[in-house]
Amino acid sequence: MLSKRIIPCLDVKDGRTVKGVNFVDLRDAGDPVELAWNYSQQGADELVFLDITATVERRKTMVELVKAVARQINIPFTIGGGINEIADADALLNAGADKISINSAAVRNPALIDELAKAFGVQFVVIAVDTRVLNGKNIVHLNGGRLPTEKQTLDWIQEAESRGAGEILLTSMDHDGTKGGFDNGLLKQVNDAVNIPVIASGGAGAVEHFVDVFHKTNVDAALAASVFHYGEILIPDLKTILKENNIEVRV
Question: Domain range spanning residue 30?
Answer without folding.
Answer: 5-244
